[in-house]
Amino acid sequence: MTEGRIIKALSGFYDVKNEEGTFRCRGRGVFRKKNITPLVGDFVEFDKSTQGEGYILSIKPRKNALIRPPAANIDQAIIVTSAARPDFNPLLLDRFLVLIESKHIRPVILITKKDLLSESEEADLLDWQAVYQQIGYSVEFVSARELGDFEFLKQHFKDCVSIVAGQSGVGKSSLLNAVNPSLELQTDDISTSLGRGKHTTRHVELVEAGGGLVADTPGFSTLDLTDISAEELSDCFPEISEREPGCKFRGCYHYKEPKCAVKQAVEDGEIAEQRYAHYIRFLDEINSRKPRY
């Protein structure tokens, strides 16, 4: 029995890599019986054979796990969003950020297609960039030409496991091709009728890039906050979480409670009004969902 990390999952097969090489493995039947699915990024114990094959016997404890994209033990997420085609969507970006924060994964925001904007539209995007930078997030705002030169971004990949996430058509595969040209990942055009890109990534795989490992993950356009409670939501907004100790009432939801430090910070311009509006929208969404039994 030996140990390794799953670097690829496809059709019930798992490529497990360690210092000896890469082994094509199947999962034990007990995983199916217990409804356990091995994920890319998992550290596992497996039996190997001389033909470079084996069976996964156990999965080591995870520090985090995502359902969409299906990956585990992730250090950071490069959240790719576009300035146009599809249009910049701060509500969707905040959904990504909430999910990433809830898993204790470090976010990096990448806004693409800067060259498609007018001067006034670019000014609006720069305002949004400033909002997220003030919170403490790393934000890059680039044109299509700059997408091909990512020396400045490679530092984010070094010595960590990253995912690249975002809705379809924003440039995720183009980003990874720039970071690691040997990938030759397929890219596709935007559907002009739907305003979104076609899905071009068919499986999840960890590949070497920028001195670390990165997963190319399928794009998606919606995120459900089903695993986040109302009590946990504020922890997913750093600028809200850091002001909670100033609230009069312990367990304040920063909604209708009096003497709330968060609402005061919004009034004082210390917290962006639209970010707070998104927090309230997500809070209402969580509180209105039906209980699960």
UniProtKB/TrEMBL annotation:
UniProt xrefs under CDD domains: S1_YloQ_GTPase, YjeQ_EngC
List of residues binding Zn(2+): C247, C252, H254, C260
Domain CP-type G: 63-223
Compartment annotation: Cytoplasm
Co-factor: note: Binds 1 zinc ion per subunit.
Residues binding GTP, per UniProt: T112, K113, K114, D115, G166, Q167, S168, G169, V170, G171, K172, S173, S174
Pfam families noted in UniProt: RsgA_GTPase, RsgA_N
Top-rank lineage group of the source organism: Bacteria
Gene3D superfamilies per UniProt: Nucleic acid-binding proteins, P-loop containing nucleotide triphosphate hydrolases, Probable gtpase engc, domain 3
Cofactor: Zn(2+)
Alphabetized UniProt keyword annotations: Cytoplasm, GTP-binding, Hydrolase, Metal-binding, Nucleotide-binding, Ribosome biogenesis, RNA-binding, rRNA-binding, Zinc
SUPFAM superfamilies to which the protein is assigned, alphabetical: Nucleic acid-binding proteins (SSF50249), P-loop containing nucleoside triphosphate hydrolases (SSF52540)
Transmembrane stretches, start-end: none
Keyword rRNA-binding: yes
EC number: 3.6.1.-
UniProt keyword RNA-binding present: yes
Domain EngC GTPase: 72-221
PROSITE patterns: ENGC_GTPASE, G_CP
Protein family: Belongs to the TRAFAC class YlqF/YawG GTPase family. RsgA subfamily.
Binding partners and assembly: Monomer. Associates with 30S ribosomal subunit, binds 16S rRNA.
Protein task: One of several proteins that assist in the late maturation steps of the functional core of the 30S ribosomal subunit. Helps release RbfA from mature subunits. May play a role in the assembly of ribosomal proteins into the subunit. Circularly permuted GTPase that catalyzes slow GTP hydrolysis, GTPase activity is stimulated by the 30S ribosomal subunit.
Protein name per its UniProtKB record: Small ribosomal subunit biogenesis GTPase RsgA
Gene: rsgA
